[in-house]
Specification:
Elements: H1 2-13, E1 21-25, E2 32-38, E3 41-49, H2 53-68, E4 77-83, E5 86-92, H3 101-115, E6 121-123, E7 128-130, E8 142-144, E9 147-149, H4 157-175, H5 183-193, E10 201-203, E11 212-214, E12 220-222, E13 228-230, H6 233-241, H7 247-256, H8 263-282, H9 285-298
Antiparallel strand pairs: 1-2, 2-3, 3-5, 4-5, 6-7, 8-9, 10-13, 11-12
Helix pairs in contact: 3-7, 4-5, 4-8, 6-8, 8-9
Bound molecules: adenosine-5'-triphosphate.
Family: Belongs to the fructosamine kinase family.
Protein name: Fructosamine kinase family protein
Keywords: ATP-binding, Kinase, Nucleotide-binding, Transferase
Length: 299
């Protein structure tokens, strides 16, 4: 497998790459990460089962879409595919570790700049492109963790969030034996909560602490996106889900595009999506957390 991946790197970069050393990189929950070193170059590789190759293809497209905004750094995708019986994704290697206040201010400013972008709505099937529309979705489905994330273009944000985010995850959770007694009441209530008519923004989609990092040179980077066009508040809510980003991040963000005061009310409903997904991915421990969040939302 490693030779096949090396050969593909040589092919797409036009420079011979022969693997010399490989070491595991920890930090991800879904894929196995490795550093691949050879010919004075290093690459970051993610490996999963062959059936997951579409997940990597979607990640490449998400990284490219974010790169095209010219706002915030993402690792450059090199190639992806199947070698032996494994799916792989090769990315530019980045050296992390230079965290400081200025870098986190920049992370916030750059994320806000990215959120100001409304990418063209395009249908990969029809090859149509229409710019600047306030529609929500993406040109293909992707994954959140390894759960499918449905991105069918929808004109109305509430409809999109109820059907393709909360509703879809609840459906999967039911099949796994999840018990959410106030699910229907909650779904009926969403429209009342999300009546702020958000602008359609390009969002990262999975912005927990493990997916935001600062390079040794102090440059902010976002990793491993589950990109779509949605309400920017979904990203900010997720930064707060597992402990919060440094305060400088929020200061930087608000400098460029201040959050609406209603955000505080909405963030629990946005994070509920991720907690039900955690139930679907990691099991029952998250069921009671989701039910507590539902109670909190319903008041
Ligand atoms: N381009 C890169 N260069 C160097 N290290 C990287 C790079 N991308 C990711 N890493 C490191 O590897 C870790 C895991 O990466 P990543 O989050 O992309 O994996 P994953 O298995 O897809 O994760 P998740 O559980 O968030 O889905 C990161 O937290 C980071 O420390």
């Amino acid at each position: 497998m490693w030779t096949e991946i090396s050969n593909n790197i040589s092919k797409v970069t036009g420079e011979t790459f022969e693997i010399n050393t490989r070491r595991p990189v920890s930090g991800g929950c879904i894929n196995q990460g490795y550093a691949m070193i050879g010919n004075n170059r290093t690459y970051f590789i993610k490996i999963n089962q062959a059936s997951q190759v579409e997940m990597f293809e979607a990640e490449v497209l998400g990284l490219k879409q974010i790169f095209d905004t010219q706002t915030i750094r993402v690792p450059k995708p090199i190639c992806c595919g199947i070698a032996d019986d494994s799916a792989y994704l090769v990315l530019e290697w980045l050296e992390f570790g230079g965290s400081n206040t200025e870098s986190w201010l920049e992370m916030g400013r750059k994320l806000a700049a990215m959120h100001k972008v409304t990418p063209p709505t395009s249908s990969s099937l029809l090859g149509e492109t229409e710019g600047g529309q306030n529609r929500f979705g993406w040109h293909r489905n992707n994954t959140i963790g390894s759960t499918p994330q449905i991105n069918t273009w929808t004109d109305n944000w509430v409809e999109f969030f109820v059907e393709h985010r909360l509703g879809y995850q609840f459906q999967l959770a039911r099949r796994r034996g999840g018990y959410f007694p106030k699910q229907d009441k909650l779904l009926a209530f969403v429209a009342k909560f999300l009546n702020h008519q958000p602008k359609a923004s390009l969002v990262h989609g999975d912005l927990w602490g493990g997916n935001a990092a600062i390079t040794k040179l102090g440059e902010p980077v976002i990793l491993d996106p589950a990109t779509y066009v949605g309400d920017r508040e979904v990203d900010i809510a997720m930064t707060e889900l597992f402990g919060g980003f440094p305060g400088a991040f929020y200061r930087g963000y608000n400098e460029v595009w201040a959050l609406d005061s209603g955000y505080k009310k909405r963030k629990t409903i946005y994070n509920l999506y991720h907690i039900i997904n955690h139930f679907n991915l990691f099991g029952s421990g998250y069921e009671s957390q989701a039910n507590r969040m539902i109670e909190e939302i319903l008041g």
